[in-house]
Amino acid sequence: MKLSYEKILRKVFSDFLVKWFVNDKIIILIAIAGALLIGIIIVVFVPTQNETVEEETSRAVETDQIKSVLKKIEDEKISNDNSENPYVPKEREWIQSGPFKIDRSVYVLGEKIFVNVDDIDKNTKGAMVFAKQINSTYYYEYKKIKFDGSKQQNNFYLGFNLNPVRGVCSVDNLIGDWIVIFEGTNFESLKFKVKDQIIPGMEKSYEPVC
Fold it and tell me: Maximum Cα–Cα distance for the chain, whole Å?
Protein backbone atom coordinates (compact mmCIF):
# COMPACT_ATOMS: atom_id res chain seq x y z
CA MET A 1 0.00 0.00 0.00
CA LYS A 2 1.45 3.27 -1.12
CA LEU A 3 1.26 6.35 0.99
CA SER A 4 0.75 9.80 -0.42
CA TYR A 5 3.41 12.46 0.09
CA GLU A 6 1.12 14.31 2.51
CA LYS A 7 0.52 11.17 4.60
CA ILE A 8 4.25 10.44 4.62
CA LEU A 9 5.00 13.95 5.94
CA ARG A 10 2.21 13.63 8.50
CA LYS A 11 3.61 10.30 9.73
CA VAL A 12 7.18 11.64 9.94
CA PHE A 13 5.98 14.69 11.87
CA SER A 14 3.87 12.48 14.15
CA ASP A 15 6.79 10.14 14.84
CA PHE A 16 8.99 13.13 15.60
CA LEU A 17 6.48 14.50 18.11
CA VAL A 18 6.11 11.14 19.78
CA LYS A 19 9.88 10.71 20.04
CA TRP A 20 10.32 14.28 21.30
CA PHE A 21 7.48 13.89 23.80
CA VAL A 22 8.84 10.59 25.09
CA ASN A 23 12.38 11.90 25.33
CA ASP A 24 11.14 15.05 27.02
CA LYS A 25 9.20 13.00 29.58
CA ILE A 26 12.30 10.94 30.25
CA ILE A 27 14.35 14.10 30.73
CA ILE A 28 11.69 15.54 33.03
CA LEU A 29 11.49 12.31 35.03
CA ILE A 30 15.27 12.20 35.35
CA ALA A 31 15.27 15.83 36.53
CA ILE A 32 12.53 15.14 39.08
CA ALA A 33 14.28 12.01 40.31
CA GLY A 34 17.52 13.95 40.64
CA ALA A 35 15.80 16.70 42.59
CA LEU A 36 14.17 14.18 44.89
CA LEU A 37 17.49 12.42 45.41
CA ILE A 38 19.17 15.69 46.33
CA GLY A 39 16.28 16.46 48.67
CA ILE A 40 16.61 13.08 50.34
CA ILE A 41 20.35 13.55 50.75
CA ILE A 42 19.77 16.97 52.30
CA VAL A 43 17.02 15.65 54.57
CA VAL A 44 19.21 12.76 55.69
CA PHE A 45 22.31 14.88 56.03
CA VAL A 46 20.84 17.75 58.00
CA PRO A 47 19.50 15.70 60.96
CA THR A 48 22.73 13.73 61.04
CA GLN A 49 24.68 16.96 61.20
CA ASN A 50 22.35 18.32 63.91
CA GLU A 51 22.70 15.12 65.92
CA THR A 52 26.47 15.40 65.69
CA VAL A 53 26.36 19.01 66.89
CA GLU A 54 23.97 18.05 69.72
CA GLU A 55 26.22 15.17 70.78
CA GLU A 56 29.28 17.42 70.79
CA THR A 57 27.38 20.10 72.75
CA SER A 58 26.09 17.52 75.24
CA ARG A 59 29.58 16.09 75.64
CA ALA A 60 31.00 19.57 76.23
CA VAL A 61 28.30 20.34 78.83
CA GLU A 62 28.96 17.04 80.62
CA THR A 63 32.68 17.74 80.63
CA ASP A 64 32.11 21.22 82.09
CA GLN A 65 29.79 19.77 84.75
CA ILE A 66 32.35 17.13 85.71
CA LYS A 67 35.07 19.77 85.92
CA SER A 68 32.79 21.93 88.06
CA VAL A 69 32.03 19.06 90.46
CA LEU A 70 35.71 18.09 90.71
CA LYS A 71 36.64 21.72 91.34
CA LYS A 72 34.00 21.97 94.08
CA ILE A 73 35.27 18.77 95.73
CA GLU A 74 38.85 20.03 95.57
CA ASP A 75 37.89 23.42 97.07
CA GLU A 76 35.92 21.73 99.86
CA LYS A 77 38.83 19.43 100.64
CA ILE A 78 41.24 22.37 100.86
CA SER A 79 38.76 24.27 103.06
CA ASN A 80 38.32 21.23 105.30
CA ASP A 81 42.07 20.61 105.59
CA ASN A 82 42.66 24.25 106.57
CA SER A 83 39.81 24.44 109.09
CA GLU A 84 40.39 24.39 112.85
CA ASN A 85 38.36 21.21 113.17
CA PRO A 86 38.76 19.24 109.92
CA TYR A 87 36.32 16.45 109.19
CA VAL A 88 37.86 12.98 109.38
CA PRO A 89 35.47 10.00 109.08
CA LYS A 90 35.47 7.91 112.22
CA GLU A 91 36.27 4.22 111.91
CA ARG A 92 33.28 1.90 112.09
CA GLU A 93 32.87 0.28 115.50
CA TRP A 94 29.70 -1.81 115.09
CA ILE A 95 27.95 -1.36 118.42
CA GLN A 96 25.54 -4.25 118.91
CA SER A 97 22.38 -5.16 120.80
CA GLY A 98 20.88 -8.55 119.96
CA PRO A 99 20.69 -8.91 116.16
CA PHE A 100 20.97 -5.14 115.63
CA LYS A 101 24.19 -3.18 115.04
CA ILE A 102 24.95 0.46 114.27
CA ASP A 103 28.29 1.37 112.73
CA ARG A 104 29.49 4.17 115.04
CA SER A 105 29.11 5.71 118.47
CA VAL A 106 29.68 9.27 117.23
CA TYR A 107 28.36 10.91 114.06
CA VAL A 108 28.60 14.34 112.46
CA LEU A 109 25.82 16.07 110.56
CA GLY A 110 25.74 14.79 107.00
CA GLU A 111 26.75 11.26 107.95
CA LYS A 112 24.21 8.45 108.01
CA ILE A 113 23.73 5.69 110.55
CA PHE A 114 24.22 2.32 108.93
CA VAL A 115 22.01 -0.27 110.66
CA ASN A 116 22.98 -3.90 110.19
CA VAL A 117 20.22 -6.43 110.93
CA ASP A 118 21.29 -10.04 111.49
CA ASP A 119 18.86 -12.96 111.61
CA ILE A 120 15.92 -12.14 113.88
CA ASP A 121 13.93 -14.87 115.59
CA LYS A 122 10.73 -15.41 113.64
CA ASN A 123 8.65 -14.75 116.76
CA THR A 124 10.35 -11.42 117.45
CA LYS A 125 8.43 -8.31 116.42
CA GLY A 126 8.79 -4.71 117.46
CA ALA A 127 10.18 -1.34 116.42
CA MET A 128 13.50 0.48 116.47
CA VAL A 129 12.94 3.93 117.92
CA PHE A 130 15.61 6.55 117.20
CA ALA A 131 15.24 9.32 119.76
CA LYS A 132 17.11 12.49 120.71
CA GLN A 133 17.61 13.09 124.44
CA ILE A 134 16.11 16.41 125.54
CA ASN A 135 16.77 16.03 129.28
CA SER A 136 17.30 13.27 131.84
CA THR A 137 13.71 12.07 131.57
CA TYR A 138 12.48 13.08 128.11
CA TYR A 139 13.42 11.90 124.61
CA TYR A 140 12.15 13.24 121.28
CA GLU A 141 11.14 10.44 118.92
CA TYR A 142 12.86 11.13 115.61
CA LYS A 143 12.12 7.93 113.70
CA LYS A 144 10.39 4.59 114.32
CA ILE A 145 11.11 1.60 112.11
CA LYS A 146 9.20 -1.65 112.58
CA PHE A 147 10.77 -5.08 112.31
CA ASP A 148 9.29 -8.57 112.05
CA GLY A 149 11.39 -11.71 112.37
CA SER A 150 8.89 -13.74 110.32
CA LYS A 151 9.74 -11.60 107.27
CA GLN A 152 12.98 -10.81 105.46
CA GLN A 153 14.82 -7.90 107.10
CA ASN A 154 17.22 -5.63 105.24
CA ASN A 155 20.09 -3.44 106.37
CA PHE A 156 19.41 0.27 105.98
CA TYR A 157 20.74 3.83 106.33
CA LEU A 158 19.22 6.60 108.41
CA GLY A 159 20.19 10.26 108.01
CA PHE A 160 19.89 13.29 110.30
CA ASN A 161 17.73 15.84 108.47
CA LEU A 162 15.89 19.03 109.33
CA ASN A 163 12.12 18.74 109.13
CA PRO A 164 9.95 21.80 109.85
CA VAL A 165 6.76 19.70 109.86
CA ARG A 166 8.07 17.69 112.81
CA GLY A 167 9.65 20.65 114.53
CA VAL A 168 13.26 19.79 113.66
CA CYS A 169 14.09 23.36 112.73
CA SER A 170 17.85 23.68 113.25
CA VAL A 171 20.98 21.70 114.07
CA ASP A 172 20.27 22.34 117.76
CA ASN A 173 17.49 19.77 117.46
CA LEU A 174 19.95 17.17 116.16
CA ILE A 175 23.18 17.75 118.09
CA GLY A 176 23.59 15.84 121.34
CA ASP A 177 22.90 12.42 122.85
CA TRP A 178 20.74 9.86 121.06
CA ILE A 179 19.33 6.45 121.88
CA VAL A 180 17.96 3.50 119.92
CA ILE A 181 15.19 1.70 121.81
CA PHE A 182 14.00 -1.75 120.69
CA GLU A 183 10.30 -1.72 121.51
CA GLY A 184 8.68 -5.11 122.01
CA THR A 185 11.94 -6.84 122.96
CA ASN A 186 14.35 -7.22 125.87
CA PHE A 187 17.30 -5.95 123.82
CA GLU A 188 19.32 -3.24 125.51
CA SER A 189 19.17 0.23 124.03
CA LEU A 190 22.07 1.57 121.97
CA LYS A 191 23.49 5.04 122.60
CA PHE A 192 25.35 7.39 120.27
CA LYS A 193 26.16 11.08 119.86
CA VAL A 194 25.78 13.62 117.06
CA LYS A 195 28.58 16.21 117.08
CA ASP A 196 28.27 19.91 116.30
CA GLN A 197 30.07 19.48 113.00
CA ILE A 198 28.91 19.33 109.38
CA ILE A 199 30.55 17.45 106.55
CA PRO A 200 32.15 20.07 104.24
CA GLY A 201 29.87 20.96 101.33
CA MET A 202 26.64 20.11 103.17
CA GLU A 203 26.28 23.33 105.16
CA LYS A 204 23.25 24.53 103.18
CA SER A 205 21.34 21.36 104.10
CA TYR A 206 21.52 22.41 107.76
CA GLU A 207 20.49 26.04 107.58
CA PRO A 208 17.47 26.78 109.84
CA VAL A 209 14.14 25.95 108.20
CA CYS A 210 11.65 27.35 110.73
Answer: 134
